[in-house]
Design the sequence.
């Protein structure tokens, strides 16, 4: 009987105390009110509150630093695990890329052998090697009506007007004026820039014309030309102004009115290379085929022989 009364007393005490869910329902509104109060205090830009927050943070900083000491090995291990995961992914990507590059290398070697055989068969004239000089951009003359820069290389460095100028990304422009120690470079997006180019895998010929904008236009394309965004654009070498194969950019925009997204960022030019590329055009006289008309070379020879002789003793006969 005594044990039974003791159990009833315990049940009565338990019934008088609130259960776990009941305690949560009572404490939840109080916690919400406290959070709202702290949120409002954080929005109040009062000097006293800011000072109090700073004092509390300063007081808690040793505690936070002490708490970070035992957690530092854990953080270091976490960083190492993340680095290992990244390295594993990078290694997998590099292996795949290496396999693709090995296949392309094998294909390139085959094409190189075929090209050498064809050159030997057709007795193709070898393209001369092009020397260059690298200089630094010392002034930017770009504005609303002109796009050009000045470099610290001139006639002293054997730089002449007409030489192509490139950087690590591609063609930048050409030299238009030279001094003893400096030159001015007309950029490819200038209004006066016209460059013969080839576009895409089918080598569609066109002219890239600048308009002082960031993306030059493509003009004078064949009517049946199939040009798509993403096609590569490079110099064609037509006219001998630029060597063939200098990369410029890719086609972008509407295929009906295509433009060229340049590979070189013309707004942040720092170092440029000037190619010593002389135009391989022949000086053919225009009047060579006209009967009875002397060529320029013949006229120069006649003028040289017709010039009066200097006074002096007559040569013995």
Sequence:
């Amino acid at each position: 009987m005594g044990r039974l009364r003791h159990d009833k007393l315990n049940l009565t005490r338990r019934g008088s105390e609130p259960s776990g869910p009941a305690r949560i329902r009572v404490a939840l509104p109080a916690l919400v009110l406290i959070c709202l109060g702290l949120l409002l205090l954080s929005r109040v830009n009062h000097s006293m509150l800011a000072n109090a927050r700073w004092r509390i943070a300063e007081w808690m900083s040793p505690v936070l630093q002490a708490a970070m000491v035992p957690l530092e090995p854990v953080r270091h291990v976490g960083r190492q695990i993340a680095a290992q995961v990244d390295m594993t992914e990078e290694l997998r990507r590099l292996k795949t890329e290496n396999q693709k590059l090995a296949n392309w290398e094998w294909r390139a070697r085959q094409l190189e052998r075929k090209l050498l055989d064809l050159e030997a068969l057709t007795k193709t004239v070898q393209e001369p090697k092009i020397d260059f000089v690298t200089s630094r951009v010392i002034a930017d003359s770009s504005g609303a009506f002109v796009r050009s820069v000045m470099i610290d290389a001139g006639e002293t460095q054997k730089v002449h007007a007409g030489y192509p100028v490139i950087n690590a990304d591609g063609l930048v422009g050409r030299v238009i004026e030279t001094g003893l120690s400096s030159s001015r470079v007309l950029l490819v997006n200038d209004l006066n820039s016209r460059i013969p180019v080839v576009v895409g895998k089918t080598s569609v010929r066109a002219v890239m014309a600048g308009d002082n904008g960031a993306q030059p236009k493509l003009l004078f394309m064949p009517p049946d030309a199939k040009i798509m965004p993403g096609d590569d654009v490079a110099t064609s070498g037509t006219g001998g102004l630029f060597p063939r194969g200098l990369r410029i950019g890719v086609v972008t925009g509407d295929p009906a009115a295509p433009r060229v997204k340049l590979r070189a960022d013309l707004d942040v030019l720092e170092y440029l290379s000037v190619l010593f590329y002389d135009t391989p055009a022949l000086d053919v006289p225009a009047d060579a085929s006209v009967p009875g008309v002397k060529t320029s070379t013949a006229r120069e020879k006649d003028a040289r022989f017709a010039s009066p002789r200097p006074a002096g003793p007559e040569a013995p006969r």
Summary: The helical segments are 2-16, 20-43, 47-122, 296-306. The first strand starts at residue 132 and ends at 140. Residues 50 and 56 are 10 Å apart (CA to CA). Residues 47-122 form the longest helix (76 residues).
